[in-house]
Amino acid sequence: MVPDDDAITWWEDPDRKEFLDGEDFINESQNTQAINRNVAAAGVYCLKIQTMNNNGVPDVYYSGSKGCMWIEMKYVSEERIPKKETTEIPSLLSSLQASWLDCRYLEGRTVAVVIGSRTGHCIQTNPNEWGNAITIKDLTLTRKQVVAWILNQIHD
Asked: Which of 113, 133, 131, 132 is nearest to 123 (CA)?
């Protein structure tokens, strides 16, 4: 099915409830949109950041009733998922992204890296975590769990 210009895209379709937890093959942008849509539905301000002048700034800024946070969203595409559970996936951050997050973390800001894949997600909350490799065994959270974690950090 090819949607027309006025139709919503398949990942925005509210009837596709399985998308939030589902097995659909998606990319980083679609994964971020799904998370942001559900965080925003709880009344949290979400700002998707796209900058060509300040490399390293995280993908998303959230502001809720308890505080705010910055999250760099990463996605491990199907072809990059190792066949062995023990094979390491190196850190997905650029040096500028890691530096930006490290500096904000040292200032006491709430920052994180969310790594997603078709099989699951993980949340990294400090430089020791986001500087290290992961394995597919680390990708255990659903999108719903990621959304709940974000809301717990910054919103009542």
From this structure: 113
Q: Which CATH class is domain 23-154?
A: alpha beta
7-35: pLDDT as tens digits:
333 334 444 444 444 445 578 999 999 99
Q: Which two tokens stand for residue 76?
A: 């491990």
Alpha-carbon distances, residue 105 vs 16, 81, 98, 113 (angstroms): 36, 29, 10, 12
Show the DSSP H helices in 22-90 as ranges: 28-40
| Residue 117: partners with Cβ closer than 8 Å, 6 or more residues away | 75, 76, 77, 78, 81, 136, 139
Look at residue 64 and give its three-state secondary structure. Answer: strand
Domain boundaries, the chain: 23-154
d(CA 73, CA 12): 18
Residue in the block written with tokens 């500028």: 96
Model's pTM, two decimal places? 0.83
What DSSP designation does 53 have?
Answer: S
